[in-house]
Structure formats: C-alpha cells, structure tokens
Amino acid sequence: MAERDRLRHRLDEGLAALGQDLPAALRERLIDYVELLARWNAAYNLTAVRDPGEMVHRHLLDSLAIAPHVSGATLADLGSGAGLPGIPLALVAPERQVTLVDSNGKKARFLREAVRTLKLANVRVIEGRVQDVPGQFDCITARAFATLADMLNWAGGLLAEGGSWLAMKGRLQEEEIAALPAGFQIARILPLQVPGSEGERHLIVVRRA
Length: 209
Hints:
The chain is an alpha/beta fold. The chain has seven helices and seven strands; from the N terminus they run αααβαβαββαβαββ.
C-alpha cells in the first residue's frame, strides 16, 4: 500500500470511529497537512511524533475529536505548535476565522508555510506570547501547553463574553481544576475517545463565571 493510501485509510477509519463524515476533498487536504508536517519535522523537529501514520492518530484525530465542541465565528489556538488543533479545525470549518499563536520562531515559520501551502484564507499566524495577542475570541483552544490556571491568568482576557475555552488534557489533575482563577468556571469535563491513541484524553470546557 502506498504511503498516502495508508494515511487515507487510517484517517477514514478514525473518522468513522468518531462518527464524522467529511467530504473526500477535505480528507485529502487533511492528508496534505500531515505530509507537509512530516517533511518539515524531519528538519525542524516540530513534534516528537515521527511516523506520519501516528500523526494521523495523535494529531489529526485528536484535534478533530473536539470539533463538535467548537462554536462561534472566531477561534484562537494558543501555543499552536505545529498547528494543533488549529489547522485541522480551520480546514473543517472554513467559515470560521482562526488565529494560530506561537512564540517559537521555527514553529511560526511552519504555520505560515502551512497557511500558504494549504491556501487557508481563514487563518492568520501570530508569532509572539499569548499575553500580547490583541482582541477577543468566541472560542479558544489550548492543547496542554500549560496548566489551566497559567493559561487563564496569561490569556483569560482573550475569551469573549459567552465564549468557550477548550483545554485539551490527558489525565485529569484534581488540583489543577481546583486552582481555576476567579472569574472562570468549568462548564463541562468530557472524556475524549481518540481512535488509535492510548492513554486518557479529556476536554475541559471553561466559561466566564
């Protein structure tokens, strides 16, 4: 089986397990993203995951698992790294304006290249600290780049009134949840079943109190 066919097969199986039916053209663009990431990763070490097939499970499907919980017209992905979950979420919802934020220069360069190569007209990249991002957003995603308290203390002001902060975590830490800063409350904690991935995954949904 050719490499792209292998990736396509893994993605199709995973989407079926998630109960998501995406158009064929969109699935091809998701594979394009994984192939671009794998090429850049060889030189720039953007992610510890080396195998593109594993990237489908641990990056693409992990990101797409939260897609049903994303809402609003604007999304900021903080500490986006290689564009996760921001780029997959931008691909599946081209009507939403997505801002990818990362302070690491080589990761920001990759993000800009991904936006150009994948023709993501709805995506902009900010290279800088989350504390310095202007504006407010209907939805904010963060994939375990800091504790909940740190993230909200640094960037809680970015969350628009009525918006949702989606924190992607592995094993739940009770002390981390208990340390939520004033002005915020946990709306829901959802276990995530990510096809092909081992270990616990959770989505913590935070809103303004």
